[in-house]
Amino acid sequence: MRRVAVVGGGITGLAASLRLLASGEEVNISLYEASDRLGGRVQTLRIPELGVTVEAGPDSMLARKPAALRLIEELGMGDEVVSTRPEATKTYIVRGSELCPLPKGYLGIPHDPSCVHPPLLSEVGLRRALEEERLPFDVPEGDMALGAFLRARLGEEWVRFIGEPLLAGIYAGDVERLSLYATWPSLVDLARQHGSLVAASRALARSTRQAPQASGRSAFVTVQGGLASLTDRMEARIRESGRAEIHTRSRVTALTRRGHTYEVHVETDAGERFEERVDGVILAVPPHVARDALRSLVAMPAVDTFYQSTATVVMVYPRDAFGAELEEASGFLVPRPEGLTITATTWMSSKWPHVAPDSLAVIRAYVGRRGQDDALLLPDDVIAARAADEVGRLTGARGKPLWVRVTRFSEAMPNYGVGHLARVDEAEAALRTACPAVAVAGAGWLGVGLPDCVEQGERAAMRVLAALHA
Ligand SMILES: Cc1cc2nc3c(=O)[nH]c(=O)nc-3n(C[C@H](O)[C@H](O)[C@H](O)COP(=O)(O)OP(=O)(O)OC[C@H]3O[C@@H](n4cnc5c(N)ncnc54)[C@H](O)[C@@H]3O)c2cc1C
Predict the structure, then answer these.
(1) What is the CA(59)–ligand 1 centre distance, in A?
(2) Considering the entire predicted model, what is its pTM?
(3) Residue 164's domain spans which residues?
């Protein structure tokens, strides 16, 4: 019987573990997780006294990327998949303390003069964005900053007030430092296909109006009991296999080689140190952690993924604190120049049917993005008070939240810099040559979304199994 160590118990490491165990190969696993629980960034808050189930961490999965939904089906949770409420379609952007609707179309890219009104974009800013349709489109040869690409196409005002909060916001990132090809390659593909981003936005607006999703599901989905019920089920399956040892509070500090096998060096929270001999290893941890653990085996080129800290603030209000328009809103984004503490909100109870009883409204705010994260130095109660105050002023909420929770995610959001994909290729090539039965995977490498993480974990498992056969 072979043994594979999986390092990191986030969704990537859990998906890798399940794939190893389901492969039909004679393989046992040892799963090492530095913290006291599995699931990593996935954290669901359950407030039984209010009947609320809400995410502190990731809140949805992109249904178009199949890996996560396939996993959910395999775990027998297909009946628990929840779609977003169809009526919660409006996203707003704050401009000058006003909530302005995000232009209809693809990613807030305007496609006709009636799409956007001041104050969101000035007439000059809108005209400049629409001119993009007449610009020649040359596919950028090498990688470049997302901000530079968007500015050249759609102009400065669109980037500052729509593009950055929307496209960099997902990464809590800075649009000037994110890689175009590692974060939004679809922009290049669409512009190539339609000749311009404006034409692509128009075509997509038309096609989504005409064709509802064939699956009957919304573009983003989750599961009824919250995403922690998914990672809990993954953990349960791993334990039920009888072929896994799970070590929490156990940090892997190094890998060394012993003949054809590897030794995993572990340090526990209690200060105990030990080594385990294994045949293969999956490092489902950030690139700098993997590189450090591998330092005596391979001089792996640095991938240099920057990790931004962030926090979420979940606020539960009486439903009647807000007007009827709440039902139709999925949230709002805050452009950097607005200078607020919060960077965005998701209106969880409007977006999802399962989050709260009708008598309550649950709003989640985000705090901290690259270059604008001073607020994270403040104590929880001050962050919570600022978030509630800003949400109150922007939405006209009557009264204060009944319940508030700040959850901090230290160095949580990977920001892929320009040239990221080439660096990952180089690092993986060096690893394949030096240590064929060691694979890397996870949010810091090739995609931060949950489906990307599941897919990477599964692919890493297959790669290690193939190396064990070679
Ligand atoms: C606030 C927030 C909102 C998000 N929203 C969404 C969303 O709506 N949809 C979406 O698809 N994605 C979202 N994401 C992104 C997504 O949650 C993450 O990209 C994904 O969960 C990362 O999974 P992972 O397993 O790669 O990494 P992690 O979840 O970070 O897991 C890595 C694990 O490795 C452990 N570890 C690290 N070093 C060691 C070591 N040396 N030894 C042992 N263990 C170690 C860590 O403790 C951690 O548990 C969000 C993220 C955040 C923070």
Answers:
(1) 13
(2) 0.97
(3) 105-210
